[in-house]
Every structure is written in structure tokens, then in C-alpha cells.
Amino acid sequence: MTIRPALYGEHYAPRLIGRRASGDLERVTVVGRHCEAGDILAEDSPLPVDTHPGDLLAVPVAGAYHLSMSSCYNLVGRPPVVAVADGHARLLVRRETLDDLRARDSGL
User: For the residues of 31-67, what is the DSSP string, one character each?
Assistant: First the structure.
């Protein structure tokens, strides 16, 4: 998703969202398949011990790599943009779907 952690030492703070978790935290590394095989989004990040594949993580303030410089490399759709304030969330830009990507393909 971003090279900022590797190049600039940027630290993101992923958070588990969408469900309640246990109170216990563990330090983990958050990775993804967004560019290279070794993509690391966040190292040594505290997340609940009961976080598992399929859970939804929010990555606040991901910077330019979140939307303005995003692409659908590896057929990973662009993420949504959500404004959150005072316990309320508002969708600003919806997530790009596989159907969105297919609609752009004119075929052979």
C-alpha cells in the first residue's frame, strides 16, 4: 500500500473496527498484498489478541498513498474514504469494487 514506512520511517496506527474485541493487546506487524511481496504497513502495532483474518482494520491518516496516488495494481480496488468525528462516520468516497474494475475493461 505504501513505501513510506520503509523510506521515511512513517508509523501508521491500524485499529480494529466493526466489532468489539478482547481488552488484551499484542504487538503485531500488519502486512498486505498491495505492491511487493514484502509490503509492511505497520510494525509493532498494538491490536487485540483476538484479531484474525477477515477483520476490518482502519488505517487513519494514510496520506497521499491512500487516495490521490492510489491505483488498482494487482487488482486491489481503491479503498474508501471515511470522515470520522465525535463517534459518527460519513462515507466520502466509496470502495472500488471488482465490478468497477471490470467495467473499465473493454475486452479484446
Answer: E-SSSSTT-EEEEEEEEETT--TT-EEE-S--GGGTT
pLDDT, tens digit, for every residue of 50-84? 998 889 888 776 555 566 667 776 777 887 888 88
Q: Which residues are catalytic?
A: 35
From CA 17, how far away is CA 36, in angstroms rounded? 26
The alpha carbons of the chain give a radius of gyration, in whole angstroms, of 15
State the DSSP H helix or E strand holding residue 96, giving kind and residue range, or none if neither: none
Residue listed under C-alpha cell 484474525: 52
How many other CB atoms are found less than 10 A from the CB of residue 45? 19
Q: What is the DSSP letter of 58?
A: E
Select 4-104's CATH number: 2.40.37.10, 1.10.10.10, 3.30.1950.10, 1.20.272.10. Answer: 2.40.37.10
* pTM over the 0.90 mark: no
Q: 42, 14 in Cβ contact below 8 A? A: yes
Domain ranges for the chain, please list them: 4-104
